[in-house]
Amino acid sequence: MIDSQLYEVHNMLQSRGILISFSGKLSQGMIEEYGEAVKRYLEQDNRPKSEVSHIFSIFIEQTQNIKNYCTTKESSSNSETINQSSIVTIGKVEKGNFVCCGNLVENGDLGRLVARIESLAHMNKDELKRKYKEMLRKELVENQTSAGVGLIDMARKASLPLEYSVTRIDEHLSFFTLKAVV
Question: Given CB 3.0 to 4.6 Å as the disulfide criterion, which of 20, 23, 42, 93 pairs with 87?
């Protein structure tokens, strides 16, 4: 029975242009190992170095964002469910290659995240560059773990505006998906 199910998953992935997929709990070690595997896979496909670099960078940023979000939710009653919900895919579409990730997010956290992505979607490359430099110059606030440039950098490297979707699961959680096309 499992053989046919796995074959169905394989066919579904292929029909959607997905070349690489990971699902499950992310750790720093796994991100590094998968990152290197992704990089080697893309390099073997004779892609331009800049394209490989952009895809790799977006993959690392997306997986780090998920891992960091999971870390911030360690004391939440939803912690284990959120930790196990990660999925990252890399594939091909007509307009290029994509890196798409998803994970469960507490509903209270969605507004700020969606607002940040929406604000970036309306910026051109020059505006994104200025915003990126502006954020790098800002001083980190106490207990802040990053300069907040990850989404901006993804938007800069993407050839199309970042896409996202939110699927409400229940009153506490939604599944958030982010896609960047290079």
Answer: 23
CA atoms in the 13 A half-sphere facing the CB of 170 = 3
pLDDT bin (cut points 50, 70, 90) of residue 75 is very high
Least confident of 31-35, 59-63, 119-123, 135-139: 135-139
- How do strand 87-93 and strand 163-168 relate by DSSP bridges? unpaired
The tokens for 15 are 């029909």
Query: For the chain, how many helices (H) and strands (E)?
Result: 7, 5
Predicted pLDDT at 1: 61
Alpha carbons 10 and 157: distance in angstroms, whole number = 29
Secondary structure in 3-state letters for 53-117:
HHHHHHHHHHHHHHHHHHHHCCCCCCHHHHHCCCEEEEEEECCEEEEEEEEEEEHHHHHHHHHHH
If you search the block for the tokens 């073997």, which residue do you land on?
Answer: 44
Q: What are phi and psi of 140, to 5 degrees?
A: -70, 135
Regarding beta strands 96-106 and 87-93, do their DSSP bridges make them parallel or antiparallel, or are they unpaired? antiparallel
